[in-house]
Design goal:
Length: 556
């Protein structure tokens, strides 16, 4: 299939971006966090705050925001990726294409297509998607569903090198964006539902050669292997499918580790290290510096890969450098970046499997919902396996000390039967569950990071599965599964602007500037796991088809 532009409202004005492929150094990636012109990393900066200091678009004039152009990607399977921006060129990926687009006009500069083996989609659990790429030393670097890391020339789109990371037949796939940290490409893998042995890998950006590999599931005799019953660690899961964040000062990469396999906990007794937690690594060597487990012996596929946002905040009146995670399990975790110490753990959605957090043992205080589930009884669990929020990233405002999170309000009836044997490469879930869906299945919330309490919340009949982004002018941008792209007042939750795109939004908004004009860019294209499985009537007539939209103020 070819890539085509759906429309261009601004027209294809003559524009030259000959510097598009100029090299990005490690120092450039660090500096880009404060840049208003460049977005070189996943998360809009190493701290993953998804915050911009731009103020041209503000609460008063956002009503005048208009579409500049839209670029179609000929894809019916969903657009989840965060775009990157360098020298006015936007780079966008989906599951089988990479494209460079003139950011002012929407004109395609180049595109690169990927052909997959037919068996690829068999081992993709939760949507045929890709979440983004990385820029470094003139290369556009991305992962593929069939487990390659691919380096393209950022100026031409031509392939420079290609490295295979894992085998499809064993249940592995790659859906996340790579992270460049201290000159090393770091990639995770998906596939816990297929009984993989999860890992992170570090690659040389110049050649694609693998430098290190750190497994999240210990082999027999290794530290942590005693937390697995029998040989259950051999197919233990622990995938790493969402991109982490990086602290250049501490030289630590933070990465969320997902659920153990199978979902049914009754055949894998123990804490199941190193699943369902946050891992800090040395990017040069892959050495684990600390690991903090959030869900020992996870029973409900509450996972642990959610966005890891760094900030400098006060906790109990004391200044702390923290990493924060709004977890699928319903807790908002605030940890000390240097040590992994739990500083604050509080619910941010309705939850009943735990009553709180024990800071002495660093474990959840389980309720009878959890203990009955382990005994094989049928229980009602909040939140459901979809989570209090899912993979879609939250954002943080350092001005307001608030997290902006698209949350779920969904429970489930759950029962784990007798244990079954897991076979690598085969789906490994083995539980019975049905969702419980209230009238409002989700909320956009502004959350205090140290208490988990919402300053405001906006209810939605269908939960939003898009990322959030916020600006210094007091705006929060996000999208709805029904296709509306919205701007919200960050102080009170009032929706100030709304634009109907051609499909449902599951992407990640960004904002950037070129020649004194601020732009806002978002991908629209329904797909992904929640859209696949929701039975909400509101999405019945939402069309598929993906496009990248860019907006600016009228007259700009």
């Amino acid at each position: 299939m070819r890539i085509f532009r759906l429309m261009t409202i601004a027209g294809f004005a003559a524009s030259c971006f000959t510097c598009a492929a100029s090299a990005q150094t490690a120092a450039d990636l660090v500096a880009s966090q404060k840049s208003t012109k460049e977005i070189l990393t996943y998360g809009m900066g190493y701290n993953a705050q998804r915050y911009s200091s731009l103020t041209q678009i503000n609460r008063k004039n956002v009503k005048n925001l208009t579409a500049a152009w839209a670029y179609g990607l000929s894809d019916q399977l969903g657009l989840e990726a965060q775009p990157l921006v360098h020298d006015g060129v936007i780079y966008i990926t989906n599951h089988n294409r990479t494209a460079a687009v003139d950011g002012v006009t929407g004109k395609e500069l180049w595109r690169h297509n990927i052909d997959y083996p037919s068996e690829t989609t068999r081992v993709v659990c939760c949507g045929i998607v890709n979440r983004g790429s990385a820029l470094y030393e003139g290369k556009l670097i991305r992962g593929t569903l069939d487990n390659y890391i691919l380096a393209l020339d950022a100026k031409t789109g031509k392939e420079i090198w290609k490295t295979k990371i894992a085998d499809i037949a064993s249940g592995y796939s790659i859906t996340g964006a790579p992270l460049i940290a201290n000159g090393v490409i770091i990639t995770g893998v998906a596939g816990a539902e297929f009984g993989i042995r999860g890992f992170l890998a570090g690659l040389d950006p110049a050649t694609g050669k693998e430098i290190w590999r750190t497994y999240t599931i210990p082999a027999k005799g290794e530290k942590g292997s005693e937390t697995w019953e029998g040989d259950s660690a051999a197919t233990g899961g622990g995938s790493t499918w969402v991109t982490g964040s990086y602290d250049p000062e501490l030289n630590l990469v933070f990465w969320g580790i997902s659920n153990p396999a199978p979902w049914n906990p009754r055949g894998r007794k123990g804490d199941n290290l190193y699943t369902c937690g946050i891992m800090a690594l040395d990017p040069k060597t892959g050495a684990i510096k600390w690991f903090s487990q959030t869900d020992p012996h996870d029973a409900f596929d509450h996972d642990g890969v959610n966005a890891l946002v760094q900030a400098d905040i006060k906790v109990n009146g004391e200044a702390k450098k923290v990493v924060m995670q709004a977890h699928r399990d319903g807790f908002l975790y605030v940890l000390e970046r240097a040590t992994g110490k739990f500083l604050a753990v509080n619910p941010f959605v309705e939850m009943n499997w735990a009553s709180g957090w024990d800071y002495k043992t660093n474990r959840p205080m389980w309720t009878d919902v959890y203990t009955k589930a382990l005994a094989g009884e049928k229980v009602e669990v909040w939140p459901s396996l979809t989570g209090g929020t899912n993979w879609h990233p939250m954002s943080y405002s350092p001005k307001e000390n608030l997290l902006f999170i698209n949350t779920f309000n969904v429970g489930m009836n759950y029962q784990a039967g007798d244990p079954e044997k897991v076979t690598a490469g085969q789906r490994a879930q083995f539980v019975d569950l049905t969702p419980i869906k209230p009238a409002n299945m989700g909320y956009l919330k502004a959350v205090d990071p140290t208490t988990g309490k919402a300053k405001w919340e906006i209810p939605f009949k269908v939960a939003n599965t898009a990322g959030t982004m916020n600006t210094a002018s007091g705006l929060v941008f996000t999208g709805q599964l029904t296709g509306e792209f919205i701007a919200v007042n960050s102080s009170n939750g009032k929706i100030l602007w709304k634009f109907q795109t051609q499909s449902g939004i599951i992407g990640q908004p960004i904002t950037w500037e070129k020649d004194g004009v601020q732009y806002v860019t978002i991908g629209s294209g329904i797909g992904g796991v929640y859209a696949m499985r929701t039975a909400a009537a509101e999405v019945t007539h939402v069309p598929t088809g993906s496009a990248l939209w860019t907006f600016k103020l009228q007259g700009k």
